[in-house]
């Protein structure tokens, strides 16, 4: 199935498939007389902590809000984010977080909205996410598990689904009903309404663009990196070079939507796509059912290997032993 010969030409047809997303425009910062509200959508392992720490440290008091995840049963029928920390919306100039939904914009009806998001290719995103999770588990007294279990328990097209389910707040029944082409159309349209989209390595560019509106320095210190975590836990990180060529190809193919979104938008900023020939085959029902079955089995396995004990502290020897165990549990 040919998704697009030229993405910019195909877009209107894709959007006809996707009427659900709001049509509110996203003017470039400084284009309107009313100061914009900046919403920075954080895809996991895409420099979100660097942006958050920089804004927390340098933005004027109460002008920056990081939204936290809603806890408890209410998250099943209410937005995934909490707004209890927001005192006066008029004082807020920037919001960020993993769990922001587009519905937050209703509190700022009189303000232009400037959305931004950084993306990452599926291979390096998986490797980074795996290392982060294992180091966090070890620091909590839990056990790491092998990369194979981590990958098999993972949602295919993780970034695309994260964008649609969390940021665009698409209900699960609607998301499940979409074809792979329609999912691409929805995610592509969401990105097209942002004022800045780029690869995660362009974090400095994004911060420099935010700086004039938010009154913050244009250069930020990197936070939450693997090197910083390795100062706290004894872990041998999984590297890209540890993955076999076939494993890399498998990850790209399994996560074709994430791969294509990253290729199209990593150098884009605002709507400046890099057109290419995108060919996507609709997976069979049998394949989807098999993938979900494998995922469910490995979700159970990863929890079994990780352990269910309450978070605690491990000795340096225990950290080292856990790290070695996980890396020896299998090769990729």
Kindly summarize this structure in a few lines.
By secondary structure, this protein is of the alpha/beta class.
Q: How much of the residues is beta strand, in percent? A: 5-15%
Report the major sheet: 5 strands, parallel
Taken from the alpha-carbon principal axes, the silhouette is globular
Radius of gyration: 20 Å
Residues in helices, as a percent range? 40-55%
Query: Would you tell me the overall average pLDDT?
Result: 80
Q: Could you tell me how far the N terminus lies from the C terminus, measured between alpha carbons in angstroms?
A: 30 Å
Any overview of this molecule?
By secondary structure, the chain is α/β, with parallel strands linked by helices. It has one domain (2-328): Rossmann fold. It has 13 helices and 9 strands. The chain has a 5-stranded parallel β-sheet. The longest helix is centred in the last third of the chain and has 22 residues, at 285-306. It is globular, with a radius of gyration of 20 Å. 36% of the residues are buried.
Question: What layout of secondary structure does this protein have?
Answer:
Layout: E1 2-4, H1 7-16, E2 37-41, H2 48-58, E3 64-66, E4 68-69, E5 81-82, E6 94-97, E7 113-119, H3 122-139, H4 147-152, H5 158-167, H6 172-177, H7 180-192, E8 196-199, H8 203-214, H9 226-230, H10 245-254, H11 256-265, E9 278-279, H12 285-306, H13 316-328
Parallel strand pairs: 2-6, 2-7, 3-6, 7-8
Antiparallel strand pairs: 1-9, 4-5
């Amino acid at each position: 199935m040919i998704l697009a010969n030229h993405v910019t030409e195909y877009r209107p047809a894709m959007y006809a498939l996707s009427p659900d997303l709001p049509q509110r425009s996203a003017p470039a910062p400084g284009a309107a007389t009313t100061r914009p509200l900046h919403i920075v959508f954080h895809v996991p392992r895409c420099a979100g902590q660097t942006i958050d720490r920089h804004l927390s440290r340098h933005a004027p008091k109460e002008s920056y809000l990081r939204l936290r995840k809603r806890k408890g049963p209410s998250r099943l029928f209410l937005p995934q984010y909490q707004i209890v920390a927001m005192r006066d919306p008029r004082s807020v100039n920037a919001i960020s977080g993993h769990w922001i939904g587009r519905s937050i914009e209703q509190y700022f009806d009189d303000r232009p909205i400037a959305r931004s998001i950084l993306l990452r290719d599926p291979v390096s995103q998986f490797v980074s996410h795996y290392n982060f999770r294992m180091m966090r588990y070890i620091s909590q007294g839990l056990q790491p598990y092998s990369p194979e279990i981590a990958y098999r328990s993972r949602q295919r097209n993780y970034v695309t689904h994260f964008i649609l389910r969390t940021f665009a707040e698409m209900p699960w029944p609607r998301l499940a009903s979409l074809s792979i082409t329609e999912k691409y159309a929805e995610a592509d349209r969401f990105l097209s309404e942002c004022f800045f989209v780029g690869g995660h390595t362009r974090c400095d560019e994004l911060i420099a663009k935010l700086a004039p509106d938010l009154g913050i320095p244009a250069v930020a210190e990197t936070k939450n990196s693997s090197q910083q975590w390795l100062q706290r836990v004894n872990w041998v990180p999984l590297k890209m070079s540890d993955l076999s060529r076939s494993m890399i190809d498998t990850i790209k193919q399994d996560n074709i939507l994430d791969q294509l979104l990253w290729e199209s938008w990593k150098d884009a900023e605002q709507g400046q796509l890099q057109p290419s020939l995108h060919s996507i085959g609709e997976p069979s029902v049998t394949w989807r059912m098999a993938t979900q079955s494998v995922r469910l089995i490995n979700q159970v396995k990863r929890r079994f290997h990780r352990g269910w004990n309450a978070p605690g502290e491990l000795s340096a020897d225990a950290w080292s032993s856990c790290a070695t165990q996980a890396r020896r549990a299998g090769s990729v």
